Amino acid sequence: MKRRHCAAAALTAVCALAMVSLPVQAWASPAPIPSAAAAPSARAGKSLAEVREEIDQLYREAGAATDAYNLAEEKVEKQTAELDELGRAIDEGRQKIARLKDQAGAQAREQYRNAGLPPGTQLALSSDPRLFLYGLNQMRQSQQASDAVLADMTRAQADLELYTEDAQVNWEKLEAGRLEQARAKKEINARIDEAKAIEAQLEEEERARLLELEKQAQAAAQSSWLSSGALHDINRAASPSGRNAVRFALAQIGKPYVWGAEGPGSYDCSGLTSQAWAAAKRPIPRTSQEQWARLPHIAVGDMRPGDLIIYHSDATHVGMYVGDGMVVHAPRPGRNVTLAGAGSMEILGVVRPDA
């Protein structure tokens, strides 16, 4: 909230200095999102396995929207910080122009007191050669000082206009980021509500069976992955930074998944991994998609504890490899940070924050 007040103050300064109004920006309304209340019956001719797949898909969509929300939040924070800086620059520019105007005014008043001629010019009119040379030098210095004041004022005004233009652009970006956040938040909540609505239609015995099916599917995927030989060495040594990151991540086991959370009481998947590496003094991008896009890729068979495994074709989930073929991750809403088989989900690839 404090950042938003600072940004608003910066925009107020822009308006006051530039004496212009911001252009009205039209934004397209986000596409309508199906209401959870409109969710079809969970058992409408579907097996529990099909219901499980449907629920998993909804949570994956919520995960994708969470990445969009987190990325928009990063952009909003960046634009807010830049607006704060521009606000300070605009204020300094305004003060500088005020000082230069006072200086120019003082020179003008001095000329007025001397019948429009500065002291150096008056001496230049003297018949005494020594006074004439002295006056000539004084006149030259006075003219140079006046020129310098005018040049400084011109530069200060140009800088101020540039800062004003930049602030207007940043304000528009800030508002666009906030709209993106709101759209992503709406989508996240819709997907989670829809998944919960489907689960709520199941009997208690069916929910227990659903959980068992999920565990069986994960165990089968993990067994298949390990037996494929995809991982060359399940106990490769971690780097010192990697050990610190793993230690932090393991200490969060049992804390609930909350979308957009970065601790200390709850996490989403990339909130956990980014905070673990921040604790290891190696900051990394906030979202799983940015982690995949910006961190060095390594072969799955060469990964070591501390490396991040990116999951699903759209890079919407991430876990930290901890050795023994396992990852620590924040699975989804309704679940806690936990250990899982590294191959129990669809692996897109592996990145190494300290490569």
Short summary:
With 355 residues, the chain is of the alpha+beta class. The protein has helices at 2-18, 48-113, 119-124, 129-200, 204-227, 240-250, 269-279, 288-294; strands spanning 297-298, 308-311, 317-323, 326-329, 338-341, 347-351.
Molecular structure report:
It is a single chain. With 355 residues, the protein is of the alpha+beta class. Helices cover 60% and strands 7% of the residues. The two termini are 37 Å apart. 31% of the residues are buried.
SSE arrangement:
Elements: H1 2-18, H2 48-113, H3 119-124, H4 129-200, H5 204-227, H6 240-250, H7 269-279, H8 288-294, E1 297-298, E2 308-311, E3 317-323, E4 326-329, E5 338-341, E6 347-351
Antiparallel strand pairs: 1-6, 2-3, 2-6, 3-4, 4-5
Helix pairs in contact: 1-2, 1-4, 2-4, 2-5, 6-7
Measured between the Cα atoms of the first and last residue, the distance is 37 Å
Overall shape: it is elongated
Largest sheet data? 6 strands, antiparallel
Strand order of the largest sheet: 1-6-2-3-4-5
The gyration radius over C-alpha positions equals: 32 Å
Treating each run of at least 4 consecutive H or I residues as one helix, how many helices? 8
**Which spans of ≥5 residues are poorly predicted at pLDDT below 50?**
1-42
Structural class: alpha+beta
Arithmetic mean pLDDT: 78
Q: What is the helical fraction, as a range of percent?
A: 55-70%
Element-by-element helix/strand order: HHHHHHHHEEEEEE
Q: Tell me the number of strands.
A: 6
- Tell me the strand percentage band: 5-15%
